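User: Predict structure, ligand MGD.
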Amino acid sequence: PVILNHRGLCSSNKRAANYTTIGDTSWETLDAANCKYLLNFGSNFFETHQGGLPLLKRFVEGKRKGLKLVTFDTRLSNTAGKSDEWFAPFPSSEGAIALAMANVIVEKKLYDKEFIDEWCNTSLEDIKEFVKPYTPKYASEVSGLSEDDIRRVAIEFASAAPACAAFTNRGSQAHQNGLNNDRAVVILNAIVGSIGKKGGYAFGGSKSKKDFPMPKPVPAKPKFTTDLEDPRLYPLSNKWQKMRVSQLAFDKLKNKEQQIDVYISYTISAPQTWPEGPSVTVDVLKDENVIPFHACSDVVYSEMAHYADIILPDATYFERYTIEGRNAYELIPYFALRQPAIQPPYECENLADTLIKIAQRLGEPVSKYFAFDSYEEFIKLRLSTLPKRDGLSGFEYMKKHGVWVEEKEKNYEPYDKVLSKKQLEGSFVKDGIIYVEKKGKRKAIGIMKDGVPRKGLKTPSRKFEIYSSVIEDTARSLNIKDDGFPHFEMPKSLKEIKEDELVLTTFKWNVHTQARTTSQKYLTEIVHDNPVWINSQTAKKLNIKNGDYMEITTYRPKSGFRASETDEVVGTMSVKAHVTQGIHPQVIAMSNSLGMNFGGRIAKGTNGDKENMPAFSKDDDLELDGNIWWDKKFGGAGNGFNPNHIIPINPAPMVGMQAWNDTVCRVRKV
Ligand SMILES: Nc1nc2c(c(=O)[nH]1)N[C@H]1C(S)=C(S)[C@@H](COP(=O)(O)OP(=O)(O)OC[C@H]3O[C@@H](n4cnc5c(=O)[nH]c(N)nc54)[C@H](O)[C@@H]3O)O[C@H]1N2
Ligand SMILES: Nc1nc2c(c(=O)[nH]1)N[C@H]1C(S)=C(S)[C@@H](COP(=O)(O)OP(=O)(O)OC[C@H]3O[C@@H](n4cnc5c(=O)[nH]c(N)nc54)[C@H](O)[C@@H]3O)O[C@H]1N2
Ligand SMILES: [Mo]
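Assistant: Predicted complex:
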């Protein structure tokens, strides 16, 4: 029983940074509507981001009141372009910039002494000592930014406190050193005291899964795990939630380190989205000796579906139920119910319904856990624990209104809440921390403050953790030198980068979502081509003009997984150039989402007749015939390129986050 997911490709360093510092949430919930100053390290929230729209809506409210946005992105994204200021740092240097800003804030005494004394696990003196080496001069050397800018922005940021927030996304965390980059950024908020404050680095407030208990009986958790699911070398990947390091899974299977008999895939398109997906993943999916049986649930004939033994055609999100709960950017807990707007066509069916049927066919003991008529029934049972509202049961209320909002105040300073008598029942205090004991296990629930029991943060010290014992202990267990502070260190490959080498980074489009949208004609008509961004000066040196083809050759990283000191090639690819001033001179940038081999005519960018398949009615999509004008046959751009041909599997230490943006390469004109 192995369950994998895509956290290690997506966000696990960011999540780990939040868990080690603030404890109880994997994601900040910026209070942008009330914020005065936002420092954005590598998030493209105007176009992408996990909570993009709800955040953007509140950002616009804040902007009307004078909110300033400063963005650090290696590339002129639409967020960078619409920011008040944009800086293009050298990849992976974000931690150094943030620590230098902390250094300036400490030097200028712009910190929040009260918050540090009360709520940080490190004293002001220790913070001063820790940030000492990270001077603006040092950060300037590693990032390429000017010392003056680093100083000025730090002062502006701190002067807006507590209505200010420094935050991150994949730009800063998808690196070998991404965990500490992100910790360094989050720590800026603690030093100026904006953690949990109005207009600041707020967090929490979402309705949790616990509120919708699984219908009983609930199957017991498996008693063992395997190295596929719980990789020993990355102990932090599953410490707080199941984040996994799935980009290693196909490699382990290919090398016979692990074996599986049956593989069910669901909303994953690994040949497209995984590093070395087109090679390692495809090799594994094609080899019946490695995966004897593969069932793929998908809504289109995807890259993944192509390699499956059987396709389970899923209902799309218009056609099924889901309980939806994302960050509550209003800071008031809520959740929503997605409901079928139309019936699924042909034999398509919600995978959950298919699984219920499979379980029932399997019989005891599996079937007893799936004793529902349908997924609708299952959702009804889960919502049955909600209190009645407007005289309606949970399910009826949600069907009618779609959204449930708690009757609560905005969740500011959640750590400061006083624990109630009820919460304190059976608790005891040791070294200032309040514990309860459940089934012989000690669990911290709060912290004593001047004799008052408060909730605190959900870290081991119940305080904001600048120093992390979890990190220090984990590092020790792996023989990695680490004192538990978020020091800055450039990844080896980037530190030793040579004059003729560049860094390949990737980014996402505003109109595409991962490998999900390329078969949608309206979206792909807008974006079907992804030439590689290259700085005009760099292009000039290499004699590359806009639209020329250039050959990119990538190398294995110099530290970590399959480290190689000898320029071992991962892959070579010829791609068109987009020459622009809007990118760091030592960086090239390529989007994902394109370069499909399957997924129909639109995804592939090839005109021609529709395949004659019995499930398709003959006359839908007639307007497509001859209208895929981006087909190369018509002199169009074609369907783009998939960068994952040449991006190495590169998990960062301890957490296993894929270091997407550390890939060293060489480029030449073809
Ligand atoms: N080079 C590069 N690679 C990247 C990234 C990058 O920035 N650059 N981003 C990474 C990130 S952040 C992530 S999260 C991963 C995501 O990569 P994956 O985890 O592979 O997920 P998706 O590409 O979102 O979706 C995969 C499949 O889900 C199918 N699908 C869509 N809707 C449904 C549905 O309702 N039901 C079913 N059953 N299937 C459905 C789609 O058709 C598609 O085949 O990619 C990573 N890969
Ligand atoms: N439209 C759309 N929305 C999406 C998605 C999508 O595919 N399409 N995917 C969803 C998912 S799964 C995720 S994880 C989020 C991701 O949301 P984001 O993290 O905001 O998006 P990314 O494009 O992965 O990366 C953000 C930015 O990092 C920059 N960058 C790359 N390398 C570096 C670097 O070394 N340093 C710095 N400072 N910046 C760098 C890129 O140029 C890019 O603009 O978006 C979610 N929302
Ligand atoms: Mo993601």
